[in-house]
Each structure stands twice: as C-alpha cells, then as structure tokens.
Amino acid sequence: MGRMYINMVKYIYAFPGQGAQAPGMIKDVCEKFGEGKALLDKYSKVAGIDIPSLLWNSTAEDLARSDNSQTAITAASLAAVEILKAKGISPSIVAGFSLGEWSALCVSGILSFEETVYAVTKRGAIMQKVCEEIAASSNGKAPGMAAILGLAPETILDILKGRDDVFAVNMNSVRQTVAAGTADGLAWAEEQMKAAGARRVVQLKVAGPFHSPLMQKAADEFAKVLDEITFNNPTLHVFSNVTGKEMTTGAEAKENAIKHITSPVLWTSEESAIKALCDADGSEWQLLETGPGKVLSGLWKDTGYIEQIPATPWEESPVLA
To answer: Is 44 known to be catalytic?
Structure first.
C-alpha cells in the first residue's frame, strides 16, 4: 500500500535555508542510506572541504558562520535528494527558502552540481566577510536576524518604515515575519514589536542581516562570481524568493541570484504560486522538506494549504520506510 501511495503522488521539494543547521545533521540518515554519504564525499572533493566532518564534528557556533552553514546545509540537502532518487522519488516542483534556493537551482538543472558547490562556497565566504565588517563597525556587536511571532506583517513593516539599521526581510507566514539588522537595530525592533503586541521575538542562528540592504557590498562582490557560471534554463518547475513566482529561464535565475542577497524572501507569495500550479495540474501532491529541519513544513501548514498539499519533513516521509 505504501508503494502504491508513492506512485500516485507528485512531489514538491522545499529546501531549507540558514538556521536549519545542527551538529550531527543527517548523520543517522547517511549511515542508513549510502547514497547520502556518497554525495557528501563527492561534495568534499569538489569543494576541497571534509564535508562529513563539517556536518558531524563542528560545534553549533562554528556551523552558525555563514561560510560553514551555507556549505553544510547545501550538502545535506543535496544528499537528501540523492537518497530520495535512489528510492525512485524525484520532484516535479522545487523551491528553496533563502540559501535553499541554491539547492533548487541545482536540482532544476539551472546549475550543474560543480557550479552549485562553487557558487555556494564563494557566496558563504563573501557574506561572512561582510557580516564581520558590519560587526567591526558596530564595536564588535554582531548583526543578525530575528523572527517576530504573533504580529501582522503590515504592522511590522509600518514600525520599521524609515529605519536604515533594521528591515523586514522574510515574509514567512501570516504569523511570522523575520527582521534583519545591526545588533542595535534589532534590539530597538524587539522593544517596539513587543510593545505593539508581538507574542515572541526569537533571535535566529545566523551570522548576519541577510536579505537586507546592509548586504549590498556582498551582492556586488558575488555578482562578479556569477559571471563565471553558466545558468541554464530549468528542466522542471522552480520558484524564486525574489519575485515569489516561477522562474522560466537561466537569465532570470542569474538576475534573481544577485538580487537574492539584499531582497526580502517572499515565501508566502511563493507558496501561493506553487499552490496555484498544483491546483491547475490536478494531481495529488506532497511537499517534502528536503534537508535538515522542519521549519518549512510548519510554515506551509500556517498557510492553510496543508489540507490540499501534505507537508512532511523528508526524514519522516513514507518514502524512506
């Protein structure tokens, strides 16, 4: 019965972003499925980094660095793809949250595996360097991001209007918006959000103020890296954080990849566009959070689409039974 269920379903792969990392991530899965470990070893050779050691022997503090977390999460996500492929499972739609979009670019055929590894390695290093520069200019106080829970996105946008040190950057769900900024900007925002009725303000496990104008220097430097890379047209449906819509050409994907560093993540818009595509197709769909963590599955449920498109962390899906 389980195998029949699998064959009846089309899959959406949702790839997580920074903050999903944790020491030891996917080790148990890779021990069970050799395809995952083989992918990590392949990633190690291309990147020149011992990826299994990075994933399984690093501290939480080390993994939170942008250069380490981007490499670790991308490697873990692509290992998950290989395991699912070995089980006969492949996606019809791919989307990634923030960093996760690079895994989606790879799986959709826009980028080769080797160019994905190269781009993510460069991206992580550039962004970490800029984060450290922002901290140095703020008396050593590190910039970052915080999730604001229980406050309408419109209220958050209104509170932050006109600020140049803190910005609303991730439109996660109707119940959750993420702000990015300097340490002082985030401290000010937390006070304001709680006074306005926010249920909680949670600091995220990331190294900097991603998807905000504070990362413009990183975007400018990374644009030069992208000139070395070939962006192909996708071979399946792939969606953009920058526009919240489907990307149909490699040229569009390259343009969005540059904007991605400083532009908000329009995740709710992206979910809506995916839902519309699934409805038009008329098939039965399941969303798998293809990588570490369960955050995206939770955000998907927040939209109310869960009744039509079941969302499941891939480790808990019947496809791995």
So the answer is: no
> Is residue 290 within 8 Å of 77, Cβ to Cβ?
yes
- The values of phi and psi at residue 54, to 5°, are -60, -45
Distance, in Å, from the CA atom of 248 to the CA atom of 295, rounded to the nearest integer, reads 27
In this predicted model, what pLDDT tens digit does every residue of 45-104 receive, in sequence order?
999 999 999 999 999 999 999 999 999 999 999 999 999 999 999 999 999 999 999 999
DSSP 34-45: HHHHHHHHHHHH
237-239/9-15 β-pairing: unpaired
Taking residue 125's Cβ as centre, other Cβ atoms within 10 Å add up to 20
Identify the pLDDT of residue 229: 96
Choosing from 58, 77, 98, 240, the catalytic residue is 98
- Does residue 167 sit in helix, strand or coil? strand
Instruction: Give the DSSP per-residue string, 241-276.
Output: TTTSSEE-SHHHHHHHHHHTTTS-B-HHHHHHHHHH
> Quick check: 2 and 55 in contact, CB under 8 A?
no
What is the residue type of 58?
S
Residue 303, token pair as written in the block: 């939209």
Q: How far is residue 300's CA from residue 103's CA, in Å, rounded to a whole number?
A: 19
91 φ/ψ sector (left φ>0, alpha ψ -120 to 50, else beta) = beta
Structure token digits, residue 189:
């925002």
pLDDT in tens, 226-258: 999 999 999 999 999 999 999 999 999 999 999
Q: How far is it, in rounded angstroms, from Cα 313 to Cα 318?
A: 10
Reported residue count of the chain is 321
What is residue 320's predicted lDDT score, i.e. its pLDDT? Answer: 76
Neighbour-count burial for 54-68, b at 16+ CB within 10 Å, e otherwise: bbbebeeeebbbbbb
Which of 58, 77, 103, 211 is the catalytic position?
211
- 266 close to 241: Cβ distance less than 8 angstroms: yes
Measuring CA to CA, which residue among 96, 99, 113 is closest to residue 42?
A: 113
